[in-house]
Amino acid sequence: MITIVERKPTVVEYESIVASVGFRSHDHAAVEIALANTVFAVCAVEEQEVVGVGRIVGDGAISFLLTNIMVCPSHQRRGIGTRIVQSLCGLMETLPYKNIVLEVVALPELQQFYERFGFKVPRNAPPGMVRWFNKSDIANETEVQYM
Q1: How many Cα atoms are found within 13 Å in the side-chain-facing hemisphere of 129?
Q2: Residue 70 contacts residue 52 (beta carbons within 8 Å)
Q3: What sign does the CA torsion over 41, 103, 110, 108 have?
Q4: Residue 72: band (very low, low, confident or very high) from pLDDT cuts 50, 70, 90
Q5: Is 142 exposed, middle or buried (0-12, 13-18, 19+ CB in 10 A)?
Q6: 4: burial class by Cβ within 10 Å (0-12, 13-18, 19+)?
Q7: How many CB atoms lie within 10 A of CB 104?
Q8: Which of 2, 66, 112, 114 supports an S-S bond with 119, CB 3.0-4.6 Å?
Q9: Domains with residue ranges and CATH for the chain
Q10: Lowest mean pLDDT among 17-21, 28-32, 63-67, 127-131
C-alpha cells in the first residue's frame, strides 16, 4: 500500500528517484540546499521505501512553483502522481493569504494531467523557458529535461 506522507525526502531518497526516472543528477550539497528551501514536500512511501516525491518551492506567501513530481517507473500509472499533486495542492489551500499563485512548467504531454487539478495556461502569456547553468552529464544538448 502506498502512503503519501508530508515530509521532505532525504538527499539519498531524492537522488534515487531522480536516477530512476532518468533525470539529471545534482551535487549532494545542491540537493541539501534545495530540500532545505522547500516550502512543502510529500513522499509516496511503500513499505518504508520512497517511490515518489513532489515539492513546492517559493516565497512562502505569494508565488510558488510545483516541481519535482516524480514517481519511480515501477510504480507509475497507479495514481501516485495524482495523489502527490492532490496532497501538495491541499497544503497550498492551508495558506491564509489572498491571490496566491502556484505555477507549474508542464511538459506538453503532461498539460492535461495538470489541468485536472485546476491549472490553466494563462492568456497572453509566453510559454515557459529554461536555461541551464554549469551543465554536466548531458548526453544530448537538444533534449529537454527539467531535472
Answers
A1: 3
A2: yes
A3: negative
A4: very high
A5: exposed
A6: middle
A7: 18
A8: 114
A9: 2-115 (3.40.630.30)
A10: 127-131
Q: Dihedrals φ, ψ of 6, to 5°?
A: -80, 100
DSSP codes of every residue in 14-79:
HHHHHHHHTPPP--HHHHHHHHHT-SEEEEEEETTEEEEEEEEEE-SSSEEEEEEEEE-GGGTTSS
The tally of CA atoms less than 13 A away on the side-chain side of residue 24 is 18
Phi-psi region of 33 (alpha: psi -120 to 50; beta: other; left: phi over 0): alpha
The model's pTM is: 0.87
In the DSSP assignment, the letter for residue 109 is G
Residue with cell 528517484: 17
For 46, the grid coordinates are: 511503500
Stretch (H or E) spanning 2: strand 2-6
Q: Which long-range contacts (CB under 8 A, 24 or more apart) does 33-36 make?
A: 35/8, 35/9, 35/11
Other beta carbons within 10 Å of 38: 16
Each residue's pLDDT tens digit, 93-132:
999 998 998 999 888 889 899 999 998 887 776 666 666 6
